[in-house]
Design a protein that fits this description.
- With about 375 residues, the protein is of the alpha+beta class.
- The chain is built from 8 helices and 20 strands.
- The protein has a 6-stranded mixed β-sheet. The chain has a 6-stranded antiparallel barrel with strand order 15-18-17-16-19-20.
- A hairpin with a 2-residue loop joins strand 7 and strand 8.
- Helix 2 crosses helix 7.
- The longest helix is centred in the middle third of the chain and has 11 residues.
- The termini are far apart.
Length: about 375
């Protein structure tokens, strides 16, 4: 039986007209790159880049018990979160394995928006429906109704301010507000996946093309303002998030991974009132040194470690595996994240790159942090 054809985001025709290389990603045809992925990466680090994230899932949980239902369903404490705030959290299986990492926005006292990774949106929706049973809370998947456009980079606020009267100075990191952008009603979130300042704009799917066009258009003014926002694809998004040490579901996070192994135990709130799915297993993991740990690797040579490559100890024994790796445009060296055995020392490691051992240095994550 043939697989279902890849879906299109509302911006598919825009990407095609821009000459993007389109690939199947999580069931959607998405732009891998428009031209040079290095140039797109550097544009985000130095000015601003524009991303289509409309493949992400938007799942709304609403009702008098919405906060309590999410406290039960997720590992974080959502009840104390103020309206207009966002929180990074996870939804875990009963054994503590990660089903997905999420950002949850509190839009109103009884309304939350859960943003899930595209490949896991249906899994998250179904789990939330199941876990909300018994609570006075409704779960509604509105993914098809929304488009999500991200404007990321050090110039993002100055550029967005040309198109909105929303008080962007008042919008702190991991917060959200409603506002009009380029004549379009939007939810404006100060969040992102690049390691830079920036915004994620949730708009009606029918408004996506007009909004993208306005944001991507050069706005000549004085000489300082004559930059053009650069469209950026999945390749640049991946190297940006890798430099920033941000996990990718399917790489650093899986159902076989606990938050503690990934160095993200801080998101698990074992002390919040009541029970939540996975609490018993995660409480055990919290008290048990993990058998492996996530580390950063910087290659000494030019050959990049890639996902699935073995990490080898000084004695020549495999002691881990690379989860993400690529040349770093910012550092000028290949970098990687990898799980290594908990007892492994941090000296003398190498990565088996297609049969050749390439020495690597273990470094703290993230590789890059904006000033």
């Amino acid at each position: 039986m043939s697989s279902s054809p890849a879906k299109h985001t509302p911006l598919y025709d825009v990407h095609r007209d821009l000459g993007a290389t389109l690939v199947d990603f999580a069931g959607y045809l998405m732009p891998l790159r428009y031209g040079s992925e290095v140039a797109e990466h550097q544009a985000v680090r130095t000015a601003a880049g524009l991303f289509d994230l409309s493949h992400m899932g938007e799942i709304f949980v609403s009702g008098p018990d919405a906060a309590a239902a999410l406290d039960h369903a997720l590992v974080g404490a959502l009840s104390p979160m103020a309206v207009g705030k966002a929180r990074y959290t996870m939804i875990c299986a009963p054994d503590g394995g990660v089903l997905d990492d999420l950002i949850v926005y509190r839009l109103a006292a009884q309304t939350f928006m859960v943003v899930a990774n595209a490949a896991n949106a249906a899994t998250v929706r179904d789990a939330l429906i199941e876990r909300a049973a018994g609570f006075e809370a409704a779960v509604e998947d509105r993914s098809d109704a929304y488009a999500l456009i991200a404007l990321q980079g050090p110039d993002a606020q100055r550029i967005l301010a040309r198109h909105t009267t929303a008080p962007l100075d008042d919008l702190r990191y991991y917060a959200i507000m409603a506002g009009e952008v380029a004549g379009v009603d939007a939810l404006i979130a100060r969040t992102g996946y690049t390691g830079e300042d920036g915004f994620e704009l949730f708009v009606s799917a029918g408004d996506a093309v007009a909004l993208w066009g306005e944001l991507a258009e050069a706005k000549p003014g004085d000489e300082e303002d004559e930059e053009k926002v650069v469209p950026a694809g999945l390749s640049a998004r991946d190297t940006l998030r890798l430099e920033a040490g941000m996990p990718l579901y399917g790489n650093e996070l899986t159902t076989e991974t606990t938050p503690y192994e990934a160095g993200l135990g801080r998101v698990v709130k074992l002390d919040k009132p009541g029970n939540f799915v996975g609490k018993a297993a995660l409480a055990v993991h919290a008290q048990t040194p993990p058998g492996r740990r996530l580390v950063g690797l910087v290659a000494r040579g030019r050959r990049a470690p890639r996902k699935g490559y073995d990490v080898v100890s000084s004695g020549g024994t495999p002691c881990g595996v690379v989860t993400s790796g690529a040349p770093s445009p910012t550092l000028g060296r290949p970098i990687a994240m990898a799980y290594v055995d908990g007892a492994v020392t941090e000296t003398g490691l190498a990565v088996d790159v297609r049969g050749r051992l390439e020495p690597v240095d273990v470094v703290d994550l993230p590789f890059y942090k904006r000033s």
